[in-house]
Amino acid sequence: MTAAFPNYWAIVPAAGVGKRFSADIPKQFHQLKGDLVAQHTLSRLLKIPLIKGIVAPCDPTSGYWSKVSAVKNPRVTLTEGGETRAKSVLNGLIMLSNVAELDDWVLVHDMARPCVTSSDIMKLINGLTNHPVGGLLTTQINETLKTIMPDNHVQATVNREAYRAAKTPQMFRYGILRDAIELMIQDQKIPTDEASAVEYSNHKVLSIEGRHDNIKITRREDLMIAEVILINQENERCV
């Protein structure tokens, strides 16, 4: 039985070093349209009044956080990150253990996704209101998909209709998500995202279609793409 009026919390892991980004500065602290990436991301989440608190597992001692004004908001808390994304998220869940109920909702969002819109976040929240487990934002695959052999030759062409690209936020019941991540860590498995951990515990995860412009900044050129997206979103007034 789920609570009639659950609370909503957010965890935004930011402890990674972003090896594919190839920079001395973590990608969340790079400039993007006049602010740092982390500022854009946290600001988007703070625009959702339903979210009571945001926990960012990270290196709280980093001096770069002083340049992120969003962390001064009383709804934002920095906590120590883990050596993997899953352990960082678990640290965030532990941080929430004194305030979150088992049936509360937890939205986990990538700090490197600064282009997420309020409309997408609310679509996820509204789409999962009565769901017992949770789900995630996904997008359709537009490109042709190939499976590649170890020698880089094409093995087969895959029917892309059966596939979706996983995005964030991903939103799950607090107790289910915590237990699922703990189980995978205990079994020495590495979840690629929160949904994969919940799937590992044999729960059914709902897919909700989101926007394609909710990109993840992975490489340097993604910053230029993200800037164009932010400008277009402002013109569209959907942020």
Explain the overall architecture.
By secondary structure, the protein is an alpha/beta fold. It has one domain: Spore Coat Polysaccharide Biosynthesis Protein SpsA, Chain A (Alpha-Beta Complex), CATH 3.90.550.10. Helices cover 28% and strands 23% of the residues. The chain is built from six helices and eleven strands. A seven-stranded mixed β-sheet has the order 5-4-1-6-10-7-11, sandwiched between helices. Strands 2-3 form a two-stranded antiparallel sheet. Strands 8-9 form a two-stranded antiparallel ribbon. Helix 2 (85-96) crosses helix 4 and helix 4 crosses helix 5. It is globular, with a radius of gyration of 18 Å. The mean pLDDT is 94.
Tally of alpha and pi helices: 6
On the 0-100 scale, what is the average pLDDT? 94
**Roughly what fraction of the amino acids lie in strands?**
15-25%
* DSSP strand tally: 11
* CATH topological fold name: Spore Coat Polysaccharide Biosynthesis Protein SpsA, Chain A
Q: Strands of the biggest beta sheet: in what spatial order?
A: 5-4-1-6-10-7-11
Helix content: 25-40%
Distance between the termini: 34 Å
- Low-confidence stretches at least 5 residues in length (pLDDT < 50)? none
| Pattern of helices and strands | EEEHEEHEHEEEEHHEH
Structural class, judged by helices and strands? alpha/beta
**Judging from the principal axes of the Cα atoms, what is the shape?**
globular
Looking at the overall shape, the CATH architecture is Alpha-Beta Complex
Reading off the top of the CATH hierarchy, the class is best stated as Alpha Beta
